[in-house]
Amino acid sequence: MTKFTDLNLAPKVLKAIEDVGYESPTPIQAGAIPPALEGKDVLGIAQTGTGKTASFVLPMITNLARGRARARMPRSLVLCPTRELAAQVAENFDTYTKYMKLTKALLIGGVSFKEQDALIDKGVDVLIATPGRLLDHFERGKLILSDVKVMVVDEADRMLDMGFIPDIERIFGLTPFTRQTLFFSATMAPEIERITNTFLSAPARIEIARQATSGENIEQHVVMFKGSRRDRAASEKRQLLRALIDAEGEKLKNGIIFCNRKTDVDIVSKSLNKYGYQASPIHGDLDQSQRNATLEKFRNGEIKILVASDVAARGLDVASITHVFNFDVPGHAEDYVHRIGRTGRAGRDGKAIMICEPRDEKNFADVEALIAKEIPRLENPLGQPSEEASEAEAVKSEKPKRTRTRKRKSDKPAEEKTAVESGSADAGQDTRSEEPPKEARQERRQDRQDKPEGKSRRGRGRKDDDTKVIGLGDHLPSFIALSFDERQAG
Ligand code: AMP
Asked: Using CB atoms within 10 A as the burial measure, which of 48, 278, 401, 475 is most buried?
């Protein structure tokens, strides 16, 4: 078996690896580090959880140990699709360079330009950035990319999903032709293939088996669920989620609940808290400091359950997540693989439980086709909801807190409206960052795409809307949860 000491890494890098306690390189590391150290281009087909971050950071810093950065001219560039992923790469960078004198800057939305400009002005060895923010700096004339010797593209398939490929192509064009490129993607969609054919030169190709298709360390289940009545389905589904969490008992140390829509992220999180579960929401509309604070609390165990959207949790690297719950079947089968890959990391066991409603069956079939196996069905621990039972439950748990009259159409986005109207602690606080990040826009698009067919965006006054507003509590009329379209609101 390959050892880190066989890989020609700088002694100071080896010392840092020893401190972290890794025993041996993972397959992507053993495959990518030698060609990367030789200055070759690398095409790594691997997803998060395989150790791919170290597979590019370790050779990069070994090679960068020689030479110095000049003002405004970073020597290397790491492009990541999301702020969270960029922040994690930066953390990895700090860990592995602890015995070295290399400098870095992190260019991500939600952090002030001023601070980042000051670092770039001094000169940095490694610039870690999301594509949009990098181009913003470039356009303001603050950054010169002609000294970039190594460029890393991390999670290229995510970049594609998020519409960043034109930005990536532009950035490639701004860096010298002679640069080394280390390119990572979990999948090779035709568009990704095209980019690698255009911008990589005779790359060493290292392909690591997909975690979810090969990784038998994640126990997967699905519960088929149908609400007793259309206007009860949402609260019954949350009740089912609680039952599934309870059924895991002590085994559940920490978990992520994925929802397809960010409106649901807020609703599910609030509902769990109401029932005494410690949960916090994370999605692209929350500002960066809130997202960081939530992630930090989740990492250090203060928060047990994170309720997340795909975009916000992308690349989230917490080594020991015991459970993933899919509150919805994801709209893209690929996302299932990414979601469940948050658990069962670094060889640990993990469990992934998904709820599937009748309207999700097509997406569910796509998931099973992608992973090429049947996901074992789990009985609904509450039994299939019946109308009578749910009426009884409704009387017990959904006593109206106050009488509610329909409000005038306001300028507030739907999620915020929910917070205000249900009197949460966040009421009135605008959770959007001043400059809505691209990932937030992507989520908004996703929210719209995910609307059940035939429903108008606003949906007001339609006969299939909730007409009976019983009260607040755990029940939420569906019109409140509809996505808000700023363009129409003016
Ligand atoms: P990544 O794929 O880069 O997101 O890494 C997934 C996880 O594996 C992270 O928690 C790393 O700290 C961990 N890891 C990376 N390299 C190794 C290694 N050689 N041995 C054990 N764990 C590792």
From this structure: 48
**In the numeric block, which tokens belong to residue 271?**
């509902």
pTM of the model: 0.56
List the beta strands (DSSP E) in 299-407.
Answer: 305-308, 323-326, 350-356
72, 121 Cβ separation under 8 angstroms: yes
Return the best residue to mutate from 317, 318, 343 for the ligand 1 pocket (most ligand atoms within 8 A of CB): 317
Buried b (16+ CB within 10 A) or exposed e, 224-245: bbebbeebbbbbbbbbbbbebb
Q: pLDDT for 18-38, tens place per residue?
A: 998 888 898 899 999 999 999
For the record, the structure tokens of 36 come out as 């990367």
Q: Does the domain made of 218-396 have the CATH classification 1.10.1740.10?
A: no
Can you tell me which atom of ligand 1 is nearest the CA of 20? Answer: 12
Q: Record the tokens describing residue 179, joined without a space.
A: 């640069």
Looking at ligand 1, which atom is closest to the CA of residue 315?
4
**Pick from 125, 123, 134, 124: nearest CA to 159:** 134
The C-alpha angle with vertex 437 and arms to 431 and 440, in degrees rounded to 5, equals: 70
pLDDT band at 386 (very low <50, low <70, confident <90, very high): low
The answer to whether residues 126 and 104 touch, using CB atoms and an 8 Å cutoff, is yes
Give tens-digit pLDDT for 88-142: 899 999 999 999 999 999 999 877 788 888 999 999 999 999 999 999 999 988 8
Domain-wise residue ranges, the chain = 4-207, 218-396, 412-423+433-489
Ligand 1 neighbours, Cβ below 6 Å, are 22, 25-26, 29, 48-54, 317, 319, 345-346
Count other C-beta atoms under 10 Å from residue 120's C-beta. 22
Query: How many Å apart are CA 201 and CA 414, to the nearest integer?
Result: 48
Q: CA dist 306 to 49, 238, 247, 297, 439, Å?
A: 19, 15, 18, 10, 18
Q: Please tell me if the domain spanning 4-207 has the same topology as the one spanning 218-396.
A: yes
- Residue 467: Cβ-neighbour burial (10 angstroms; 0-12, 13-18, 19+): exposed
Distance CA 170, CA 204 (A): 23
CATH class of the region 4-207 = alpha beta
> Comparing 21-35, 342-356, 422-436, 475-489, which segment has the lowest mean pLDDT?
422-436
